């Protein structure tokens, strides 16, 4: 099996990213703030906007056998007083590709990108509190819990807490 390839997504990846994102929203709806119902109407042009944002954010994909197997986004906070922080979003690896270290490769790409953004001091993310595998990955990369939001998401009438995590970037 060829080695996985992590790269910044380009507009030509929009269809594959749209499908992977919709698959993620169906498979683990409690892991995302958005829902399939909200996003299934997004156009390829909307998705291209995620891939080529107006700011210094980025979407990364991991490809296995030339197919998009995982994704992650990283973006600078927009508010002037919070622009020293980046946020990781939409972290997902397809179930058939899990257990191969792809999530760690994606997270390293996101962290490296955030570190290259001028003035970024912290990378933040949130993870559904019962997602032990994801939390363990983030801890292994140096993230630390700084809070918990109770009942952050309501999915099909069930409430899910989110753990808030941050990684301090040195030398910024």
UniProtKB/TrEMBL annotation:
<keyword id="KW-0808">Transferase</keyword>
<dbReference type="InterPro" id="IPR050832">
    <property type="entry name" value="Bact_Acetyltransf"/>
</dbReference>
<protein>
    <submittedName>
        <fullName>Spermidine N(1)-acetyltransferase</fullName>
        <ecNumber>2.3.1.57</ecNumber>
    </submittedName>
</protein>
<dbReference type="Pfam" id="PF00583">
    <property type="entry name" value="Acetyltransf_1"/>
</dbReference>
<feature type="domain" description="N-acetyltransferase">
    <location>
        <begin position="4"/>
        <end position="170"/>
    </location>
</feature>
<keyword id="KW-0012">Acyltransferase</keyword>
<dbReference type="InterPro" id="IPR000182">
    <property type="entry name" value="GNAT_dom"/>
</dbReference>
<dbReference type="GO" id="GO:0004145">
    <property type="term" value="F:diamine N-acetyltransferase activity"/>
</dbReference>
<dbReference type="InterPro" id="IPR016181">
    <property type="entry name" value="Acyl_CoA_acyltransferase"/>
</dbReference>
């Amino acid at each position: 099996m060829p080695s996985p390839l992590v790269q910044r997504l380009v507009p030509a990846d929009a269809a594959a990213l749209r499908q992977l994102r919709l698959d993620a929203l169906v498979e683990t709806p409690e892991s995302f703030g958005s829902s399939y119902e909200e996003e299934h109407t997004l156009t390829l042009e909307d998705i291209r906007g995620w891939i080529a944002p107006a700011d210094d954010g980025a979407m990364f994909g991991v490809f296995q056998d030339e197919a998009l197997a995982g994704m992650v986004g990283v973006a600078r906070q927009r508010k002037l007083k919070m622009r020293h922080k980046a946020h990781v979003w939409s972290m997902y690896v397809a179930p058939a590709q899990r257990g191969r270290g792809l999530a760690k490769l994606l997270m390293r790409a996101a962290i490296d990108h955030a570190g290259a953004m001028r003035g970024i001091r912290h990378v933040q993310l949130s993870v559904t509190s019962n997602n032990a595998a994801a939390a363990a990955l983030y801890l292994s990369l140096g993230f630390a819990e700084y809070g918990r939001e109770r009942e952050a998401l309501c999915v099909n009438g069930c409430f899910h807490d989110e753990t808030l995590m941050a990684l301090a970037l040195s030398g910024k």
